[in-house]
C-alpha cells in the first residue's frame, strides 16, 4: 500500500518540513543502498507526504556522495508519484536576484562522478529527456509562489556541476554565454532517475548568490549563502505547503507516468533474473 503520494526533497537549508502532522520516521532499504537519511512521513494539507533531507539531517553528504538512485528508488517504493524538489542555486543572470525562486525546465550536465541511471546489468532502456521536468508540477510550484507572494519564475536552465568547489570565473562566464540561468550541484541526477522511475519531478531553485561572475561584487561564499538561505527556507516551506494543497489528485495525464513504455530495448528473454528482480518495482508492468 502507498505510504505517500507526494515526495519532498529538501536541499541546503531545508532539512525538515514544518507543519507535518502524524509524523513518523522510516528508513527505506533499496537494492541501490541507503538513501541520504530516514524519510519523514506525515500529513500536510490532508495529503500523505514523504520528506527527505537530500544531504541528510545536519548536512553530512557532499553532492558527489549523494546516493541519488537510493533516494529516488525509495520514493518509488513509498508510492510517491510526484516529487517537489527544493534547492539552493547561484544566479547566472542579473535578473535572478537572491531570494528569487526559479523553476528550471532545462538542464546542462557538468557532472562527471555520478551514476545517473537505474539500468545496466543486462537491461538497456533510454527514456526521453527533452522535457526533463514535469510541467504540471512546475506550474503548481509557480502558482504556489504567487499565492504566497514570492517571486517564482517558471522556466530557465539549471547548470548541474560536480562541486564541491564553486565554479571558476571562466566557467561561470561560459555558462552565462550559454544563456543558462542558475547553477547548482544536485538536481540533474534526481530529474533523470525520477523520469526512469516514472515519477513526476520539478525543482524550486532558490537563488542565494550571484556565483563569481558579477564584477564589483564579492564571489560566492558559504557564509553569504547561509545568510540568504534562512529567508529562502522560510519561504520555501510556505510555498511547498501551498503546492501540496494544490497538487492534482487522481490519475496523472502527463508523459512522466509512462516514460518507460517504449524505452526498454532489451529482449525480455535475455534480461537476467537478478536484474529483473532488482528492478521489478520499475519494470514489472512492462515485462
Ligand atoms: C550551500 S552551497 C552548495 C550546495 O547548495 C546546493 O545544494 P542543494 O541543491 O541540495 O540545495 C548545491 O547544489 C550544493 O550542494
Ligand atoms: N554559486 C553556486 N554554485 C553552485 N551551487 C550553488 N548553490 C548555491 N549557490 C551555488
From TrEMBL:
Substrate binds at residues 185, 209-211. It holds the Pfam family PNP_UDP_1. Gene3D superfamilies: Nucleoside phosphorylase domain (3.40.50.1580). Residues 5-244 form the Nucleoside phosphorylase domain. Pathway: Amino-acid biosynthesis; L-methionine biosynthesis via salvage pathway; S-methyl-5-thio-alpha-D-ribose 1-phosphate from S-methyl-5'-thioadenosine (phosphorylase route): step 1/1. Phosphate binds at residues 12, 54-55, 87-88, 186. It is an enzyme of class 2 (transferase). Keywords: Glycosyltransferase, Purine salvage, Transferase. PROSITE patterns: PNP_MTAP_2. It catalyses: S-methyl-5'-thioadenosine + phosphate = 5-(methylsulfanyl)-alpha-D-ribose 1-phosphate + adenine. One of its GO terms (biological process) is L-methionine salvage from methylthioadenosine. The record marks 167, 222 as: Important for substrate specificity. One of its GO terms (cellular component) is cytosol. One of its GO terms (molecular function) is S-methyl-5-thioadenosine phosphorylase activity. The keyword Nucleus does not apply. Its EC number is 2.4.2.28. The keyword Glycosyltransferase applies. It comes from the Bacteria. Catalyzes the reversible phosphorylation of S-methyl-5'-thioadenosine (MTA) to adenine and 5-methylthioribose-1-phosphate. Involved in the breakdown of MTA, a major by-product of polyamine biosynthesis. Responsible for the first step in the methionine salvage pathway after MTA has been generated from S-adenosylmethionine. Has broad substrate specificity with 6-aminopurine nucleosides as preferred substrates. Belongs to the PNP/MTAP phosphorylase family. MTAP subfamily. Homohexamer. Dimer of a homotrimer. This is S-methyl-5'-thioadenosine phosphorylase. The gene is mtnP.
Amino acid at each position: 500500500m502507498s505510504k505517500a503520494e507526494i515526495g519532498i526533497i529538501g536541499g541546503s537549508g531545508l532539512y525538515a518540513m514544518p507543519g507535518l502532522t502524524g509524523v513518523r520516521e522510516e528508513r527505506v532499504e533499496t537494492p541501490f543502498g541507503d538513501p541520504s537519511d530516514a524519510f519523514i512521513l506525515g500529513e500536510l494539507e490532508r495529503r500523505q507526504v514523504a520528506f527527505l533531507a537530500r544531504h541528510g539531517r545536519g548536512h553530512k553528504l557532499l553532492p558527489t556522495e549523494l546516493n541519488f538512485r537510493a533516494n529516488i528508488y525509495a520514493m518509488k517504493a513509498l508510492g510517491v508519484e510526484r516529487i517537489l524538489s527544493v534547492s539552493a542555486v547561484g544566479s547566472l543572470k542579473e535578473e535572478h536576484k537572491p531570494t528569487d525562486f526559479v523553476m528550471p525546465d532545462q538542464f546542462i550536465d557538468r557532472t562527471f562522478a555520478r551514476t545517473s541511471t537505474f539500468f545496466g546489468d543486462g537491461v538497456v532502456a533510454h527514456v526521453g529527456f527533452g522535457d526533463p521536468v514535469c510541467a504540471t508540477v512546475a506550474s503548481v510550484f509557480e502558482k504556489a509562489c504567487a499565492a504566497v507572494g514570492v517571486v517564482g519564475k517558471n522556466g530557465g536552465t539549471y547548470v548541474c556541476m560536480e562541486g564541491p568547489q564553486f565554479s571558476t570565473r571562466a566557467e561561470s562566464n561560459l555558462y552565462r554565454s550559454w544563456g543558462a540561468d542558475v547553477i547548482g550541484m544536485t538536481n540533474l541526477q534526481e530529474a533523470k532517475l525520477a523520469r526512469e522511475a516514472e515519477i513526476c519531478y520539478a525543482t524550486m531553485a532558490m537563488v542565494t548568490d550571484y556565483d563569481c561572475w558579477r564584477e564589483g561584487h564579492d564571489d560566492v561564499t558559504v557564509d553569504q549563502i547561509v545568510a540568504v538561505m534562512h529567508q529562502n527556507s522560510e519561504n520555501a516551506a510556505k510555498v511547498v505547503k501551498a503546492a501540496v494543497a494544490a497538487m492534482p489528485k487522481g490519475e496523472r495525464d502527463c508523459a512522466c507516468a509512462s516514460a518507460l513504455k517504449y524505452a526498454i530495448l532489451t529482449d525480455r528473454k535475455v534480461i537476467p533474473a537478478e536484474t529483473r528482480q532488482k528492478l521489478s518495482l520499475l519494470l514489472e508492468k512492462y515485462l
